[in-house]
Amino acid sequence: MDKLLIEGGFQLNGSVTASGAKNSALPILASSILLKDKLTLSNIPHLNDITTMLEILSSMGAYMTFNENMDIEVDTSLINNLKARYELVKTMRASILVLGPLLARFHEAEVALPGGCAIGSRPVNLHLDCMRKLGANIDTSNGYIKASAKGGLIGANIEFSQVTVTGTENAIMAASLAKGQTKITNAAKEPEVTDLIKCLNKMGAKIQGEDTDKLIIDGVKELSPTNYSVMPDRIEIATYLTATAMTGGEITVKAVNPNTIDKVLQKLELAGAKISKNDDSICLKMKKLPSAVNISTAPYPSFPTDMQAQFIAMNSIAEGQSEVIENVFENRFMHVQELVRMGGKIKLKGNSALIDGNLNGLTSAPVMATDLRASASLVLAGLVAKGITKVDRIYHIDRGYERIEEKLKLLGAKIDRISE
Ligand code: EPU
């Protein structure tokens, strides 16, 4: 199994280019099911989760080709199998994103129920409720969601009782081909939701209200082929910036949309980083130890839960005390015990982590990744820890960070991937 070996104590300097956003590419790839034609996508990151989504699509009968620019062309005209198998779904919860598009186009779908997950129970009740609202019959038995809507989905009013990102995306995709109008309230406003809306509208969907929590979707009969470039990965960008706030140094992240990570940038500035933004790049300079910052996660535009673990790593070596409150997932603190093994002074109390910045710094240890963002926090800790940190189970990190060790090496980190 692959592991990362990181020798801590080196500043990050230089420039790095952001990859396309995983959490935008996944729903956009799923949306190709809505088309009876080709969707051409660029800036799709090379990640294990993307491979899983491509495998699901091809298991249904879709064809994928890469053109000369390495854009992916997804041809879903010949889809004939409306099932997402457990073997694939169990490796990636976002597989649920095929439910809405399958129901909308074929009026039928069978998708394995995703199980629990390292960061929380993560039920899919809100996805199912909204498909029911749109007229689908849903039966969950033998570990599968069996859904059908004879005669097609019908527009409805959907009010989410809780903000859900992929739930909102499923609802949008399903409503795009439903008969009549759908109104969604308390929709997720994450930039990845907006990216999906932009792609769907480019295909001919009629979705209004992007960037707001109220969406109005007028169903259309069919969508048309188009090409679309996926937005930059705001969490990947924020992770490299946070890494530099920890190691010190000066980096520029290129190919970014700086407006999508305002809250993270504000917190990094509070920690002492000097940040300058251009239209498509962000430069971060850090000349001191970070100061501790409090954070509280919540849906966009608040501080993202996907950056919570990295900020706990930063606060572990910061000057001062801090509190990090996790409001989105009930069990997203698996990294804390690993950081404690590296010398972090962190206490958990309910959904908060109380951190006493350890000015003596962290020390290396063999540590284990438990989920994607938890593994990122361990890599960041390894970059500043004394000695050589070995991070195990890095398949988690390969789900969401493209060539992380190569990008960090470019910036001056001492990091290697080994197989043992
Ligand atoms: N929830 C329910 N019922 C549902 C759906 C969600 O109770 O039917 C709860 C969840 O358990 C959670 C909260 O609602 O407590 C919010 O979950 P949400 O549905 O928004 O999460 P998601 O759509 O499954 C996406 C990202 C996650 C990111 C969250 C929150 C994708 C593919 N995944 O998950 O990304 O943390 O939104 O922003 O978009 C990651 O990239 O590491 C990652 C976990």
Can you offer a commentary on this structure?
The protein is α/β, with parallel strands linked by helices. Helix content is 31%, strand content 26%. It contains 14 helices and 24 strands. The strands form six sheets. Strands 22-23-1-24 form a four-stranded mixed sheet, with helices on one face. Strands 2-15-17-16 form a four-stranded mixed sheet. Bound molecules: uridine-diphosphate-2(N-acetylglucosaminyl) butyric acid. Residues 23, 26, 93-94, 120, 122-127, 162, 164-167, 192, 305-306, 328-329, 372-373, 400 line the site of uridine-diphosphate-2(N-acetylglucosaminyl) butyric acid (EPU).
* Mass-distribution shape: globular
Proportion of strand residues:
25-35%
**DSSP summary: helix tally:** 14
Strand order in the sheet with the most strands? 22-23-1-24
Terminal CA distance reads 6 Å
- What structural class do helix, strand and pairing data support? alpha/beta
What binds here, in terms of ligands, is:
uridine-diphosphate-2(N-acetylglucosaminyl) butyric acid
Helix residue percentage: 25-40%
Give the radius of gyration.
21 Å
Low-confidence stretches: none
User: How would you sum up the major sheet?
Assistant: 4 strands, mixed
Q: Output mean pLDDT.
A: 96
The counted number of beta strands is 24
